[in-house]
Structures are given as C-alpha cells and as structure tokens.
Amino acid sequence: MTKDYFVQQPPMLLNPFDNDVVLQQVIKLFVPNKYHQSWFKVFQQFGEKILLEVEPLGNEAETTEPVLINYDAWGRRIDRVQVPSAWYKLKDFSSKNALVSDGYQREFGEYSRIYQFVKLFLFTPSSAIYTCPLAMTDGAARLLEVYGDNSLRNTYFQRYISTDPTEFYGSGQWMTEKTGGSDVSETETIAEFDGETWRLTGPKWFTSGITEDTAMTLAKIKEGHNIDDKVSLFVLEIYNDDGEPNNLTIDKLKDKLGTRALPTAELTLNGVPSKLIGERGRGVKQIATMLNITRVYNAISAVSYLQRALSYAEDYSSKRKAFGSLLKDLPLHSEILTETKSAYLGNLILTMWTVSLLGKTETGVASDQEEKLLRLLTPVTKLYTAKKSFAYISEMIEAIGGIGYLEDAGFPKLLRDAQVFTIWEGTTNVLSLDLLRVFRKEGNLNFWIDTVKPNILNSHDQDVISQFMEIEAALKSYLQTSSKFMQKNARNLSFEIARFSILSLLFENKDDLSELEDIEEYLQFWITPSPEFHRLTSQKRRILVSAS
Ligand code: MFK
C-alpha cells in the first residue's frame, strides 16, 4: 500500500471585493456616505461574477494563445487572427457590465469614474488583460467626446459606450511605429485625401487589440508633394463588412513576455479609409487626451495585479507551515506581507485620488487647482504604481516559495504581465519627462505644494515635516536649474511627488482608516525616506552649481 504523503493546500481566490478591507476603506474616502451601502452590494455581486464568469474565461483565454493565419489553403492572403471564444466573451461581458459605459453615463456624477474603476480593478487580474482593449476604447470615447464632430459622436462614440454586445465597438490605439514608441512625431504613415475619404498608408508596429473594431491612429497629411511636419489624428475601421482586414495586412503577432492572450500585431496600412478627428497637425496634443485615460487604466491595473499577488500570498501564509508555525506567524514573513500591504494601500489611495480628480474634471466640477493636479498626478501615478507593482509582485511570488515560480501554479503570469505596466502607455522615463512638461506649462508647483503641505503639517510628525521641507526646498531649487539637470533628476522628483502625495492622503484620512488594524505600521512604511529622497536631498550642492 502506498503511503499518503503530505499535499499542501493551495491559496484560493476568494471574492475580490468581500475579502479586501483596504479597498473598501479607500472607496469610502472618496465617495459620499449615501453611496456606500448600495455600491458595496453591487461590488460584492460583481466580485462573485469575477469568480464564476470572468476567472474561467480569463484562464481559457490564457491557455489558448492567439494565432495569426496569413494564408488559406488556396494561397489567398487572409490575415485572420484567431483567438479563443473566451476572448470575445470577455468583450461581451465588458459591454454588458458597462465597464466603459459607466464612465460616460455618469449616473453618479463626479463619482462615476470611481464606480467604474472599482469594477475595472476587480475585473483586471482575472480578465487575461482584456482591460487593455477597454482602456483604449475608453480613451477613444473620451477623444470623440472632446474632439469628435456630431457624426463621430453619434456613431463610434455611442458604440464605444454601448452596453449591448451586438452594438459595442472596441478600439485600438495605433501610435507606435518602428521610428518611435516614445517619439510618435516621427511617424511614417501618410494620409492622402482621395476626394471622398482619407486613406492611410504606412507601417504600424505595436497594435494591441487587433481583434477590435476601430483604431485611433496618427499620420502625416500629404497634399501633392508636400507632407505635413506634424501628425494628425484619424479613426478607422479595422475590418470591412466581410470581416476582412480593411486595406491593411497583419504581418506578425508579437511574441511578448506577458499579456500573451492579448493579440498585439505588426501591420502595414495600404490605403485604409479613415476619418480625420479634430484639427489637422494637432494629432499629438489630441491623442494625449487618450493617453491620459489609458495611463489611469494602467495604474488601476498595476495596483489590481499587486493586490491579487498579495491576496494569494496572504492566504498561503495562513495555510503553509514552516519551522513549527504558520508562515503568517513567522515575524520576518509577516513583516514582508505588512510591507507589501502598506505598498498596496499607498498605491491604491494614490490611484483613487487620480481617478476621483478625473471624474471631477470630466463632469466640470473640478477647481482650477484640481485640474492641474490631475494633469500632474496622471503621469506620476502611472509610473509609480507600475514600478511598485512589479517589485512587490516579485516579493509575493517569493513569499509563496518554489511553487510561486511554477507556471502551472499560475503566479509567474502576474509578474510577466506586470512588466508591461512600466512600458505600455509610456516608460518611466517618458512619464517623468512628462512631469517636467507640466512644470514648464504650469510654471511652478505651488498648486501641488498647497494641496499636500497642510496635511503634512497637520500630521505633527516632525520626521515627515522636516523631510517635506527638504523636498519643497529641493523642488524649488530644481525649477531654477538647467534642463539637463532637471531631466537627470526627473525620476527622483516623480517618485517623491508620489510618496508625499500618498503621505498627505494617509494623514488627511488617518482617522477614517483606523479600521485598518496596522495603519500605524503602514504609515511608518511611507514615512521611511526612500532612495529617491536621499538622492534628491544629497545633491543640493550640485543644484547650486547647476543653477549658477
Ligand atoms: C497591456 C498590454 C500592452 C501590450 C504591449 C504593449 C507594449 C508597448 C507598446 C508601446 O509602444 S507603448 C508606447 C506607447 N507610447 C506612448 O505612450 C507615447 C509616449 N510618448 C509620450 O507620451 C510623449 O510625451 C508624447 C508623444 C505624448 C509627446 O511628445 P512630443 O512630441 O515631444 O510632444 P510635445 O511637443 O511636448 O507636446 C505636443 C502637445 O501635446 C503640447 O501641447 P501644445 O502644443 O498645446 O503646447 C503638449 O503640452 C501636449 N501634451 C503632451 N503630452 C501631454 C500633453 N497634453 C496633455 N497631456 C499629456 N500627457
């Protein structure tokens, strides 16, 4: 008879809303009491749907990766991207559950974006990152809301925000070309008017959401022999009425580190019929509207992935024994979990602040200061959450030990996917430089200092106050330095703006967060000076030299 050896109980995915007290507390900070009960009921039920519907679809999509079939048996070029039916079911689920629509129906006024983003938060880690097409669709909707004419608003916009899967359109965002992922002004795609429509010709190099319906893209307008210096913005339909690629070839699917269920293609446009959006030559400025939405999606996705890894590691720590104790009772193991939870809380509260400012701005109730804060916090939140998410997911995989490293246990996917959050929608460097663009445009940083400083001073925590004074002085000095010096320090600045924004939010809401048992420890984590703080403050002499 064979002996029954020990088999470890695995960590379980539980209802992601019910089991997340941090999320519940943070939501309460940003929305009025009158919504708490009814929203929480919706989120609880939505959490059940995630377990019962989305998780199986996501798993199915992950196990059957997209395939590109360029030719049929007869040698005809067909360029068909084959994805499992689960991928389309995720799309249907998204429209039925109003994952884009909620942000535009605005049932809860300025709070509608928070409502929407909580649902996206719950959806994302189970969805095989179908959130990526949703991000682009939402960004496309916002573009048309701001820049679209009536015809575009009555057609594509209505479809992007539809809750009827037979009407719903998803959109891609085709910016990247071989000439530039960051510097999109170098685009080689040309737009020519043929008397009836604009026709686009050129290469597109990183086109996610190739199975969606439309795409927003950039091209330079050519008239006769003249080609514009600046890019313009266009919308196009990816497939024609017969379901074939619409005057374009799909040349290759990217072989990516993560997000493998999401088809990302290389394309050649061969005269794709397109519509011009907004003003000619203002493509970069206009598509930035879309980027600012997708960057907030990036942040919520990064934080949701971090939460998923943490929830697995926490559950595991209450099931796994080592050295005579459950892992959760081992001081060092528990310390790492607490540190990760602190990171999660801080990143979530920062993201929700940004989401709340987005909602206020879009519904016209934001003050001038809040609009400026949104512009500043969007790149900062995106870059910060991406970096922290990847680092702490790695910690949580380590906390699960050897099984954490196994593909068939499901954890490595979290880390592989999370790497994209640092690249997609702009790298950490590009976003740090975007912060400098905010400085240049806004002239000074007083609107940020005026917002966070009172909360820092009210903390009566001398350590935090003196750190803030140093950062405030450093920031003011930096604004006087050379562009090169500022660029070199842009990451340090961004990271510290993120940390002090989080500290400000935590101190402002400390009493309301008191239900979180370890709130003092979470605060301490954020108070501890970061490497970026040391880098910024240890360079005062260099600042003076650079400024002189
Ligand atoms: C989820 C899975 C994904 C699957 C895999 C994907 C892998 C990754 C594939 C990729 O390729 S991701 C890379 C995506 N690319 C980007 O995110 C673009 C990164 N580059 C930037 O963000 C640049 O900053 C940007 C192209 C937006 C601008 O560069 P420029 O050409 O130097 O812009 P410029 O001249 O400073 O600004 C032009 C106008 O836009 C200015 O306005 P004005 O003309 O009125 O002065 C700017 O103020 C405005 N602007 C720029 N960024 C803005 C903005 N306005 C508002 N918000 C912003 N963020």
Write structural notes for this entry.
- The protein is α+β, with helices and mostly antiparallel strands and 548 residues long.
- Helix content is 54%, strand content 13%.
- It has helices spanning 21-30, 33-63, 85-96, 102-105, 112-123, 131-147, 150-160, 283-317, 331-362, 368-400, 412-418, 428-442, 446-458, 462-478, 483-488, 490-508, 519-527, 531-537, 540-547, and strands at 67-71, 77-82, 171-174, 190-193, 198-208, 214-223, 226-227, 232-237, 248-253, 264-277, 321-322, 325-326.
- The structure holds decanoyl-CoA.
- Residues 129, 132, 175-176, 181-182, 184-185, 206, 208, 259, 262, 264, 284-285, 288, 291-292, 420, 423-426, 430, 434, 437, 441 line the site of decanoyl-CoA.
In short:
It contains 19 helices and 12 strands. The chain has 548 residues and is an alpha+beta fold.
Strand content: 5-15%
Strands side by side in the biggest sheet: 4-5-10-8-6
Helix fraction, binned, reads 40-55%
Radius of gyration, CA atoms, in whole angstroms: 24 Å
Shape: globular
Mean pLDDT: 95
Distinct small molecules: decanoyl-CoA
Compile the SSE list and pairings:
Layout: H1 21-30, H2 33-63, E1 67-71, E2 77-82, H3 85-96, H4 102-105, H5 112-123, H6 131-147, H7 150-160, E3 171-174, E4 190-193, E5 198-208, E6 214-223, E7 226-227, E8 232-237, E9 248-253, E10 264-277, H8 283-317, E11 321-322, E12 325-326, H9 331-362, H10 368-400, H11 412-418, H12 428-442, H13 446-458, H14 462-478, H15 483-488, H16 490-508, H17 519-527, H18 531-537, H19 540-547
Parallel strand pairs: 3-6, 4-6
Antiparallel strand pairs: 1-2, 4-5, 5-10, 6-7, 6-8, 8-10, 9-10, 11-12
Helix pairs in contact: 1-9, 2-3, 2-5, 5-8, 5-9, 6-7, 6-8, 8-9, 8-10, 9-10, 9-16, 9-17, 10-11, 10-12, 10-16, 12-16, 13-14, 13-16, 16-18
Decanoyl-CoA binds next to strand 5, helix 8 and helix 12.
